[in-house]
Write a structure and sequence with these properties.
Helices cover about 35% and strands about 15% of the residues. It has a five-stranded parallel β-sheet. Strands 6-10-9-7-8 form a five-stranded parallel β-sheet. The protein has two domains: about 130 residues, 3-Layer(aba) Sandwich (Oxidized Rhodanese, domain 1); about 120 residues, 3-Layer(aba) Sandwich (Oxidized Rhodanese, domain 1). It has about 325 residues and is α/β, with parallel strands linked by helices. The longest helix is centred in the first third of the chain and has 14 residues.
């Protein structure tokens, strides 16, 4: 039988043998979706950041009229979450650039982050999901989305809104890229040569069928064998909430997507596809789904083949 001292030495040796990265991976991730009541109960805790996600900086005036207490504003398309300009705009920035953006919101590696879909017409859950995916990709497991967004918060009159923008001190976030979140063009080409990986197109049906083309793409159509799963079919009507697991599973079945099969979601620039990725990975619980961040903008500008999609029925 080992002595107490021997057990202590053994325990210390085991702890030293675990790298910080492995320890982070072993830590339980924050719940992906939380309710307004959950955020209300936890928003006063130390080192907590709330970010309301709008499409563009032009919507700042809506945020100024009222938002969650201490919530910061971000315009997804303008605030550094994607690249601007270049041969392929709206792509995933270099990891160091992402870390700088994250730190600008006062987020370090221990910060608890709540993302809130918001918007003057329809909330943008898909943009929120893309920021969520980006944070998880760079190793932040302390992030959640408040389901239902600012509309769900305001639905309870007892919950306060604020017009004051919080004062934010820049923080240092150290990225640790998470394997298994990002699919590259090489991965997609390998998937096309395999029958084991389903390719899920999150765009509107007209783009999937090649009847319309996004301005960022060089050709109309979709990937050979891709399944159409428009992002909007997974959201509540106001665009700020994700449907229930049962409802999403029904939509997957209707579309012909295996809920637990290996998969890669894509769209034009990885924006809409983040929504499908979130539904599959975080709501349904499928760990074997990745996001093709380059999507059709990258694929078509590299001259790779596309076909008209065919919807069932």
């Amino acid at each position: 039988m080992k002595s107490a001292a021997g057990k202590a030495v053994l325990t210390a040796s085991l702890l030293l043998s675990i790298s910080p990265l492995a320890a982070r991976a072993a830590a339980a991730a924050a719940p992906a979706l939380v309710t307004p009541a959950y955020v209300q109960a936890h928003m006063g805790q130390k080192n907590t950041v709330i970010i309301e996600v709008y499409d563009t900086d032009k919507q700042k005036s809506v945020y100024d009229q009222g938002h969650l207490p201490n919530a910061q504003f971000t315009g997804f398309l303008d605030d550094g979450w994607r690249t601007v300009g270049g041969a392929h705009p709206f792509m995933l920035p270099p990891t160091a650039d992402i870390a700088a953006v994250v730190g600008r919101y006062g987020i370090n590696n221990q910060t608890r982050v709540y993302l809130v879909p918001a918007g003057p017409v329809k909330g943008d859950f898909k943009a929120t999901a893309r920021i969520y995916w980006t944070l998880r990709y760079v190793g932040d497991n302390n992030v959640s989305i408040m389901n239902g967004g600012d509309r769900a918060w305001a639905a309870d009159p007892s919950r306060k809104m604020s017009t004051a923008a919080p004062v934010v001190a820049t923080a240092t976030f150290t990225p640790h890229v998470t394997p298994g979140y990002l699919a590259t063009t090489k991965d997609v080409r390998a998937a096309l040569a395999s029958s084991d990986i389903q390719l899920v197109d999150a765009r509107p049906v007209a783009q999937y069928e090649g009847l319309k083309m996004a301005p960022v793409d060089a050709a109309a159509g979709t990937l050979q064998g891709a399944i159409s799963l428009p992002f909007s079919t997974l959201l509540t009507p106001d665009g700020e909430g994700m449907k229930s697991k049962a409802e999403i599973t029904a939509e997957l079945k209707k579309a012909g997507v295996d809920p637990m099969g290996k998969g890669i979601t894509f769209c034009n620039t990885g924006h809409l596809a983040s929504n499908d990725w979130f539904a599959l990975r975080e709501v349904v619980g499928n760990p074997n789904v990745r996001l093709y961040a380059g999507s059709m903008a990258t694929w078509t500008h590299e001259g790779l083949p596309v076909v008209p999609g065919k919807t069932p029925g």
